[in-house]
Amino acid sequence: MIYDTIAAISTPLGEGGIGIVRVSGNEAINIVEKIFRSQRGVKLHEVGSHTLSLGYIVNPENGEVVDEVLISVMRKPRSYTAEDVVEINCHGGIVPLRRTLELVLRSGARLAEPGEFTKRAFLNGRIDLAQAESVIDIIRAKTDAGLDLALNQLQGKLSEKITNLRSELLEILAFVEASIDFPEEEIEELSEGELVSRCKKVKEEISKLIREADKGKVYREGLSTVIIGRPNVGKSSLLNALLKEKRAIVTDIPGTTRDIIEEIINVGGIPLRIIDTAGIRETEDVVEKMGVERSREFFAKADLVLFVLDAYTGITKEDIEIANMLRDKKAIVLINKIDLDEGRIDPAELRKLVGDKPYLKISATEEIGLEELENKILEMVFEGEVQVGEKTLVTRLRHKEALQKAQAHIMDALKSIEEGMPADLYAIDLKAAWEALGEITGETVEEDILDRIFAEFCIGK
Length: 461
Ligand code: GDP
Ligand code: ZN
What we know:
Elements: E1 6-9, E2 18-24, H1 28-35, E3 36-38, E4 51-58, E5 65-74, E6 85-91, H2 94-106, E7 110-111, H3 116-123, H4 129-140, H5 144-154, H6 157-181, H7 192-221, E8 223-228, H8 235-246, E9 262-267, E10 270-275, H9 286-291, H10 293-301, E11 304-310, H11 317-325, E12 331-336, H12 347-354, E13 359-361, H13 370-382, H14 394-418, H15 423-441, H16 447-454
Parallel strand pairs: 1-7, 8-10, 8-11, 11-12, 12-13
Antiparallel strand pairs: 1-2, 2-6, 3-4, 4-5, 5-6, 9-10
Bound molecules: guanosine-5'-diphosphate and zinc ion (ZN).
Guanosine-5'-diphosphate binds next to helix 8.
Cofactor: K(+)
Pfam families: MMR_HSR1, MnmE_helical, TrmE_N
Subcellular location: Cytoplasm
């Protein structure tokens, strides 16, 4: 399949050291040739693949020089899109970049849609869909662990597992179908016992992937976390203490608009997304703020609540009011200011207040107990006690749904086999499971799902 030639600015807009206009498609080299004047008289269609040429971008209509540039040519299939790709490295400013892009478009390229370069890589068979999706994760990674996970997926680790499961299913299916087509003949057959055990094994592998998908989601999206407590118990101090060492590498999430700033803290690789109330003045009386729609919403959506008490003042009426709102939330109770007083909150009193919610003694200012807090959070995540809410990217929900679909079909098949149903019946289920798995790698995915996935990218990627 041959697609038209597309172009876009592939680096963030604004001032930078360099900016790149990327062009991909069969006409990429010809198009850029029309507006490029090499310093040493080289012609782009004559240069080797993966070479750089220095020169100028020139408006062919009036000979005006737009920018001094370095041009890299990557010939198909050894390029990001597996098509001919030309990258024009401009000086970083927005004006030369825009003008260069304009000339490229006027010379015959079309402006790329968001994610279209990556979509091309998928359509041209260089990467599968799960790998394409990992590109989004790499761009958005907030912690090293999240990045590693995405890189793993880009290298095809998930795809490999899916492919193996699919070929196992296909093999089982071949036996089943042979027994339907040639019931009388002496063909190699799977005993019912073998059939059941092979199906069960596939089912278990899928269950494992579903669990991993959940874990991966925490690494990618982080836990939305709210620190609550009455004024002066030490919420801001706690946030600052956590931020001091743990601020995550990336804090902006493109494509989402938020009027409340989130801080992202790296806890053992998991991004803890904490709503920043530290900057707000102490009108942030929490009980009062709970009346405000927004904070109520945040609280309701929070995956995890850190409920701070003050060891020095002990439990007050206000603490009881807050504790009452916490009933159905996953929470860790933090008895803060333990450096001042150990004894004023006794365990029995605490149990009455928060039931069996876990608690830890800490000091935000003296940095006591913070490591224990992090360990507790990790423990709760990995034991599945705390889970990330479902407001997630379609891409990942997509994997989990496909896995669950496949799992359900295999369970149906197993049931039919064990009940001695005719083979046609469970052949259909096995086939459906095989197809559901194919959605992850993109073999059986529908066009509108593709569009939704690539719409999550930014332009130029
Ligand atoms: P917030 O209103 O809950 O955000 O509380 P702040 O973080 O502003 O803290 C209120 C006061 O308590 C400040 O003077 C802090 O320095 C103090 N504080 C917070 N945590 C501790 C702690 O662990 N030990 C001691 N001694 N003081 C603390
Ligand atoms: Zn505060």
